[in-house]
Amino acid sequence: MADKIYDYVIVGAGFSGLHLADHLKNHRNKEVLVLEKSRGVGGRMATRRDGEFTFDHGAQVIENDELMNSSIKRWSDKGLLRPISSDHFSAIGGMTKLAKELAAQLNIELERKVNKISWLDNKWLIEDDQTHSWFAHQVIVTAPVPQILELLERSSIKYPKDLQQIHYAKALVFITKGESSIGESAYREISNSSIFSVSSQKLKGTSSSPCQVVVMGPEWSNTYFDESDEVIMKLGREVLKKELPELLVDDLQLKKWRYAFPLNVYHQDFLALENGLYLAGDGFSESRLNGALKSAKSLMSTLVLC
Q1: Which segments of 13-159 does DSSP mark as H helices, in order?
Q2: pTM for the structure as a whole
Q3: Measured between alpha carbons, how far is 213 from 195 in angstroms, rounded to an integer?
Q4: CB neighbours (10 Å) of residue 191?
């Protein structure tokens, strides 16, 4: 068992967790540790390389609004963003690069799935699903709400029962390779019952070779999410040929997101539980990356006063 006591342990290295860790470490000089269950940072800010192709298979764009201004300036000054419309920016080389820039100076341990948190001798004991443990004065959990509730249940920590009403949309994502005539728009939202958005990874500046990403709509994704990949691919080809006939769908890849974005959110931007335990993330504010950032910034303002 570790003897060091961190000021903060943050569970989750998604958009909220990284912004909180960056603020607490670099602007408030706090000792911060971030624990992430995956092999990389960023959550849905996910980019994959496949030979000469590079594609974002989670979040596709950064929405241009007042809340995001400081982040947009930060990344633009470092040459990581490009405007693709009046409303959107894309990440040059992929969304993962934005997450990695936030994470560069942070203390992050990957492949650490937190299994339990306990209040012990006036500090928090955080344990993963293996044999690792850490101490902290305060803990911030930024996972999707259903995963947060699983952790709280395992830890026998009480929480408001209306958190159980927060539900997330699933997302099935198709990637196609090669030239496709989908117009001059790098990213567009279709938002019919089957398809949510389509984007050209080359026009976005993500990939040097042409490939496209189609994010299926919540209703379609939820209906077929638990089918076999073979069935999903077959049904996906049928929909894409009908709705986007200009796409090449012979060489199709599939990605799945069980918690793509919240369909409804909690009535507060974050939630403070007992003894310096906080819950934050897009389930407490608004959907998409902007909501995750809003939650993080609201919590930052409260922590400044602590």
Answers
A1: 15-26, 69-77, 96-103, 145-154
A2: 0.94
A3: 11
A4: 10
Q: In one letter, which amino acid is 291? A: G
Same domain flag for 88 and 202: no
Do 48 and 19 belong together in one domain?
yes
- Mean pLDDT per 10-residue section of the chain, whose length is 306 residues: 87 97 94 97 95 94 92 96 93 97 97 97 96 97 97 98 96 90 82 87 93 94 97 96 87 94 94 97 87 94 77
Query: Do 131 and 234 lie in a common domain?
Result: no
For residue 189, give the 3-state DSSP assignment: strand
Give, as one character, the DSSP assignment of residue 28. T
Phi–psi pair at 5, nearest 5 degrees: -115, 115
| Number of domains making up the chain | 2
Q: Where residue 196 sits, what CATH number does that domain have?
A: 3.90.660.10
Cβ neighbourhood burial of 138 (10 Å; 0-12, 13-18, 19+): buried
Which residues, 6 or more positions from 94, have their beta carbon under 8 angstroms from its beta carbon? 47, 54, 55, 56, 206
- In this structure, are residues 79 and 101 in contact, taking their beta carbons and an 8 Å threshold? no
Q: What is the helix (H) or strand (E) element at residue 158, kind and residue range?
A: none
Asked if residue 216 and residue 111 are part of one domain, the reply reads no
Is the same domain home to 270 and 215?
no
* Token pair in block for residue 94: 């992929």
